[in-house]
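Handout for the seminar on molecular recognition.
Each group receives one record of this type.
Step one: identify the two inputs.
Step two: read the structure output and locate the region that could contact pyridoxal-5'-phosphate.
Step three: write two sentences on what you found, then compare them with the reference statements printed after the record.
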Amino acid sequence: MLDAAAIRAEWALDPDFLTLNHGSYGATPRAVRAAQDAWRDRLEAQPSRFFRETYPAAIRHAASSLAAFLGAHGDDLAFVENATTGCNAVLRSLRFQPGDEILVLQHVYGAVRNTIRHICERTGATMAEAAIPFPRPLPDAITEAVAAAITPRTRLAVIDHITSASALVLPIADIVRACHASGVPVLVDGAHGPGHVDLDLTALDADWYTGNCHKWLNAAKGCAFLWARRDRQHDLHPVTISHGYGQGFLAEFDWTGTFDPSAYLSVTAALDFHARLGGPALRARNATLAFEATNLVATRIGSETGGGNQVSGAMGLVRLPGITDAAAMRDRLLALGTDTPVSLIGGAAWLRLSAQAYNDLSDYERLAGLVQQALEPDAFWRSRQKA
Ligand SMILES: Cc1ncc(COP(=O)(O)O)c(C=O)c1O
């Protein structure tokens, strides 16, 4: 049994702040930061030799280690700074024309929606948004909603593996199968996938999968990857074109200009850390904790949860009754010493909580009390004035 209070010392988290938002930016443990620092020390000792001799083999070694964890081959995976960049690389490499449709879910992440808007404005393609049932959707209903939104004009589906504001773990394998059955390629936005849910990219057989390591795998910030199926690597380019242009997927992505590669190279330390904390057992434990925590908070404030147990992972969603200003609610929680995203979905406000190894149920007992305080703005502001 994992002792969250003891394990917390692995991170440098502020003990006075209730950290329940691992989903947004992750949190890098001391061991991974030490490994990253060691790579920086090596680089700065001899920058020229490092980039010419050490880096090319080191980046491929890191890619192979990460790929093995993801059920993939290292040659099919390149590092990118974040999932937003991974999505941009794919979307900007494809050629669209007027009349083409790019299919997303209504729950698509805002930055990726903007990328698609940008592509559409430049090419005359349009974005189609599939509505999925919410709250507590069943996996089959989600897949059916995606399949029903495909038209003869659909050229690409961009599907979140785990949605951001609504924290739903989508039935991604079924969705990929449904899209492929209609001849539609799929870019999976797995920003929250690695270290959160079990992944086997070869078996999933999407066309492209991009995922963050700096969220649930606890890697250093700016460590993410883009995996591309072999037949999709031709004509796939990074957002920044550099010396490797035209020389193949890895040559193009492994060098996009001088940069600090320490976040990528220390991914092996993040993989070791994840394994040391239990690997699949940690992922299951975090999902169970998030599920219990979500029910606890929902019960305490007399509300409902957003995800059922078939679509839940290490994040959970609780409806906040009577809240119309999501930003103000989040600010009140921040002032009370915690941070949890609050979003309006379908006109209602939903709070998203996260569960990581350093959390246990007592954290959500505290959260429930803080949410109760923040739900009553008048009482909240009176108490702030007194303080
Ligand atoms: C579904 C989804 N896509 C993309 C992103 C962007 O991740 P990043 O900021 O690391 O690019 C997020 C971040 O939370 C996300 O939830």
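Reference statements: The first strand starts at residue 77 and ends at 80. The pocket of pyridoxal-5'-phosphate is lined by residues 24, 82-84, 109, 111-112, 160, 164, 189, 191-192, 212 (CB under 6 Å).
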